Amino acid sequence: xxxxxxxxxxxxxxxxxxxxxxxxxxxxxxxxxxxxxxxxxxxxxxxxxxxxxxxxxxxxxxxxxxxxxxxxxxxxxxxxxxxxxxxxxxxxxxxxxxxxxxxxxxxxxxxxxxxxxxxxxxxxxxxxxxxxxxxxxxxxxxxxxxxxxxxxxxxxxxxxxxxxxxxxxxxxxxxxxxxxxxxxxxxxxxxxxxxxxxxxxxxxxxxxxxxxxxxxxxxxxxxxxxxxxxxxxxxxxxxxxxxxxxxxxxxxxxxxxxxxxxxxxxxxxxxxxxxxxxxxxxxxxxxxxxxxxxxxxxxxxxxxxxxxxxxxxxxxxxxxxxxxxxxxxxxxxxxxxxxxxxxxxxxxxxxxxxxxxx
Length: 358
Hints:
- The protein is α+β, with helices and mostly antiparallel strands.
- It folds into two domains: 10-199; 235-357, no CATH class.
- Helix content is 65%, strand content 9%.
- It is built from ten helices and seven strands.
- The chain has helices spanning 10-18, 25-38, 42-52, 62-91, 98-201, 204-249, 269-272, 278-281, 325-331, 347-350; strands at residues 284-285, 291-300, 305-311, 320-322, 336-339, 342-345, 355-357.
- The strands form two sheets. The protein has a four-stranded antiparallel beta sheet with strand order 4-3-2-7, with no helix packed on it.
- The protein is elongated, with a radius of gyration of 68 Å.
- The chain starts with 9 loop residues before the first helix and ends with a strand.
């Protein structure tokens, strides 16, 4: 991987060949462009004579057309008009008279004028038609020239597009080849970096084993400390219980080291009614019905749940901690008594171990 020997060069060779790609259609387009740019449309030569006016007065069929058009006039005059004039003057005995000559001269002039007019009309019509043909040929030559120029431009444009497409293909192949080479180089660099990481893995097992040993030593230290703490607790258990019991009798809390809140208030008995000497024994007003703002805070070591609360109708809002009589009654019914409608707890029957707060 680090030397690049694992890479298949087939793709790179294909891209390298693509950098010299030649579009086979370019040669044909080039040939067409050369033909269009260097040669006129063959139809132009065919129209050139008409456009030049070669046929304006040289229609080979014009004279025959004139003769054919005049022949009926000639036949009519020679066979009908002239003989009629001669016959009329002969009947009158005036064939050689001046009137006869004047009539024949007038008749001949009318005849020749008619022949000349008809000939002129035919030639004029022919000229006008040929002139239109000349103009049409000139327009056609112009259109052919423009079309030829457009075709030449289109062929040149197509040639340019094909050349550009060919160059784009070469550029794309070169770019892909370069990207592939860069990717190969990056992979080689990554392989070199992975070689160093692989070397570091050789030392990982030793590091892990050392960490496991340290964890085992720390766990043994914790076990030893726990055994020491348990021994100290057992040695001082009776002394602590007696101390806590004396603290409760003096109106203190279950665990003065962890809280400054008293367990109950004997002064609240005034608001609830005098309870007499019995209340001095069952002095802990722990009935849940007399409390509000109740929040669980922990357990006593004997399993009794401890709550934080305030007494109802207490204007001072003093916060206390202690158990609920209804819960203590379930496990220690002998420690609970109902006096004046409220349950109270005999702390002497309840206290066995100090309380703790979570």
